[in-house]
Amino acid sequence: MSGSAGMSTGAAVACLGVAAWLLGGGCAGSRRVRLLHAGGGAVGTGPPGWSRVAGQWARVRGRLRAEWWSLAAGTVLAVLGASVLPVLAGAAGVPVLRRVRRAAGARRARERRGDAVIALCGALAGEVRAGRQPGEALLVTGRDSGGLGDTQAAVLAAARFGGDVPHALAAAAREPGAEGLRGLAACWRVAVDRGAGLAAGLDRLEAALRAERDQRADLRAQLAGARATAVMLAGLPAVGLALGAALGADPLRILLHTPSGLACLVAGGVLEGAGLWWALRIVRGAEEVTG
């Protein structure tokens, strides 16, 4: 049993090494290929045809989403444990990880849009203070702004042809992260209807949006430790399995091929998933209170 456990441990270490090599960008040959494609200089020496193979692998790896590594890890464990259960678990983890990746991408897009709204308010205030009319200032600053989102054409058309700019800004504010455009629409309406200073209102709006963004960033930094702790604790069972394999206990055979092991695996997986979900839900709830 110790010999098979040693072979399993060696195979697992080899698979982890290959995965780290692939995630780290391979060897210097693939980096030279990427430099060549980016115009960074000549490619160094290497085996014949290696540059083409490395370039093709770089393109494939760019298209391969992160969630598919769950299926790859399940396949490796299935081979080591001689069971189909890890493959099924890895396949079940693909949609979960895809949802996590998309949620992270949506959060980053929302943050970028919020930053663009803040920059738009500051640039628009500067243009108005420099003597431009509000519509002209919005045309100048809105072309390069990402805060207007998909409704940029409608907002710029309203500013160019004397349309209802506040209504167009309110429509643009429906996109996640662009809620600050509602304040811009209110400032615009007050400035047009009552003749109030648009630049002063935009300065106050920019300061308020910036303070709110900084508060969210500070809260996220304070919660980063709790999130990292939850993820680290979730990975401890995998560390225990690796230690057990290193000591010759062959935990994969026990978990995947014995009734008691299967019961422990199911119960542990359910408790692990529930605990991780609950901990991250608490962190997200704290973020949403301020957001």
TrEMBL record:
All residue ranges annotated as the Type II secretion system protein GspF domain in the record: 122-242
Pfam families cross-referenced by the UniProt entry = T2SSF
Q: What is its main location?
A: membrane
Provide the transmembrane region boundaries: 68-97, 228-248, 260-280
Q: Give the record's membrane topology.
A: Multi-pass membrane protein
User: What keywords sit in the KW lines?
Assistant: Cell membrane, Coiled coil, Membrane, Transmembrane, Transmembrane helix
Keyword Transmembrane among UniProt keywords = yes
Q: What InterPro entries does its record include?
A: T2SS_GspF_dom (IPR018076)
| Keyword Membrane found | yes
Could you state one GO cellular component term attached to this entry? Answer: plasma membrane
Q: Where in the cell is it found?
A: Cell membrane
Coiled coil feature spans: 202-229
- Cited PANTHER family: CONSERVED TRANSMEMBRANE PROTEIN-RELATED, INTEGRAL MEMBRANE PROTEIN-RELATED
**Name of protein:** Membrane protein
